[in-house]
# Entry
Amino acid sequence: MDRYTYDCNYCGVEYIPKRRKVQKYCSNSCRVNAFNQRKKEQRGLSKPENTEQRVKETDQVDGMPGKDKMTWAGVGNAAAGTLAINLATSLLTKEENKPATKGDIQRLLKEGMPKFILIKNIPPRSDGFRAYFDTTQQILIYKI
Ligand SMILES: [Zn+2]
# Structure
């Protein structure tokens, strides 16, 4: 009786570790993903000053300003889409205290996203308004 299972620190899947005590993730890709996520979080804390400067410089260049703007708008749209998925994932995670599986997200998409999703980890404002995620406009709004 030597079948201990571990929960993957990244995706939460139960697995049988090959090396007990030292293994924290079910697979190499989860280990790498967790590492990258930690790196990204650390980078998020420091201000991306270089990027801001780069944007200003490209805006001032008279060459092809339209083209540059298109590119940055595209980045913004992609980020908004990612935000929506991340948000759905984190909402499910909060509820069940474990990472959302693909099945959870598929179920959510099938049943249809509610128009507004209460964001539980943003405390109510002093006037009692609460933060909601508007799933059609993909923005954060405050309402009662
Ligand atoms: Zn995993």
Summary: Residues 65-96 form the longest helix (32 residues). Residues 8, 10-11, 13, 25-27, 30 surround zinc ion (CB under 6 Å). The mean pLDDT is 74.
